[in-house]
Amino acid sequence: MTERVVLAYSGGLDTSVAIPYLADKMGAEVIAVAVDLGQGGEDMAVIRQRALDCGAVESEVIDAKEEFAAEYCLPAVKANALYMDRYPLLSSLSRPLIVKHLVEAAKRYGGTVVSHGCTGKGNDQVRFEVGIGALAPDLKIVAPARDFAWTRDKAIALAEERGLPIDVSHKSPYSIDQNLWGRAVETGFLEDIWNAPIEDLYEYTADPAEPRDADEVVITFEAGAPVAIDGETVTPFQAVAELNRRAGAQGVGRLDMVEDRLVGIKSREVYEAPGAIALITAHQELEAVTVERDLARFKKSVDQRWAELVYDGLWFSPLKVALDAFVADTQKYVSGDIRLTLHGGRAVVTGRRSEASLYDFNLATYDTGDTFDQSLAKGFVQLWGLPSRIAAARDARLG
């Protein structure tokens, strides 16, 4: 019986050439699955037809934009997910969703093998394969670029030899991944970490140094989820898309960082994620108003661990699932409005209001009407510092 391979298909050179390559190498039929995550670029119908023209026996495009925003980006907002306190996980958030659809396609088409275009140096091989192993451990996995020592030169030669409908004349110096949540650029001259990024790298964001008027936006949250922008009701997808547009126009969300890859190497990455940074900035501020102190302190460590698990390809792990439950419980009262000023590459909070606010004006004020009983403070301070005083006395006594 002929084996069927379900291929994660992007429409680019590597995955297009993978179709005839896998057919020849494995004697298999290839089903190409492309997932629309709001990445823009080519028309998805064109990408679907290209897969068929390259020899796929079946080709489908899955519109997962709304699903990506609601079930992957939104949990990242609630967890304030910033890997290494900076990066909003745009690639790593998308991989478990792609994995989910690859596994579902394998079931529909009777596939026994799943294939992806990742190399052995990157994080994505882990995200794809650990995810597939969690959802469908019976599926075999093939990565041509890694498993068969397949180089770009070989891919170009095969494309030309087969007359595949791919333009191989233009070779971008960069590796680019993009979706609704943001855009990542690496390789080329960026591999020298002394080189500054150039303006041509960016597509989602305007130059923050250009003079322009500031943009003020009010984001309304309910239970940690953005539900309105400037009073207009939005879906999660619409919230991200609108803030990509408005924050991007102000140059918000540019990152240039050296990050710790899962495989153990450090990698220089340039990111732009205007909507993600604006939403997480607003959400963090609303939590500061509505989440009790000790819960807020503990949640910071949970947020960091959540981001690390997602970055490390462990979306479907028991710990990630358990942390999801914790984060969801913390969001019960994270409702209200946050006002942001978007300007000069920054999203700055300028206002907060919430029916669930823990901020009490009468306790906080230093003016007339202060209800804070300062007579209680002296004894509190003495008791609070008692363990330190006892330890200091012991240290002095014993030298």
UniProtKB/TrEMBL annotation:
Keywords, ordered alphabetically: Amino-acid biosynthesis, Arginine biosynthesis, ATP-binding, Cytoplasm, Ligase, Nucleotide-binding
Listed EC numbers: 6.3.4.5
Pfam families referenced in this protein's UniProt entry, alphabetically: Arginosuc_syn_C (PF20979), Arginosuc_synth (PF00764)
Pathway: Amino-acid biosynthesis; L-arginine biosynthesis; L-arginine from L-ornithine and carbamoyl phosphate: step 2/3
Domain Arginosuccinate synthase-like N-terminal: 4-165
Domain Arginosuccinate synthase C-terminal: 174-390
GO CC annotation terms, alphabetical: cytoplasm
Residues the record lists as binding ATP: 8-16, 117
Catalytic activity line of the entry: L-citrulline + L-aspartate + ATP = 2-(N(omega)-L-arginino)succinate + AMP + diphosphate + H(+)
InterPro entries: Arginosuc_syn_C, Arginosuc_syn_N, Arginosuc_synth, Arginosuc_synth_CS, Arginosuc_synth_type_1_subfam, AS_cat/multimer_dom_body, Rossmann-like_a/b/a_fold
Localization (cell): Cytoplasm
Coiled-coil residue windows: none
Gene Ontology MF annotations: argininosuccinate synthase activity; ATP binding
Major subcellular site: cytoplasm
Family according to the record: Belongs to the argininosuccinate synthase family. Type 1 subfamily.
Protein's recorded name: Argininosuccinate synthase
Organism expressing this protein natively: Phytohabitans houttuyneae
Classification lineage: Bacteria, Bacillati, Actinomycetota, Actinomycetes, Micromonosporales
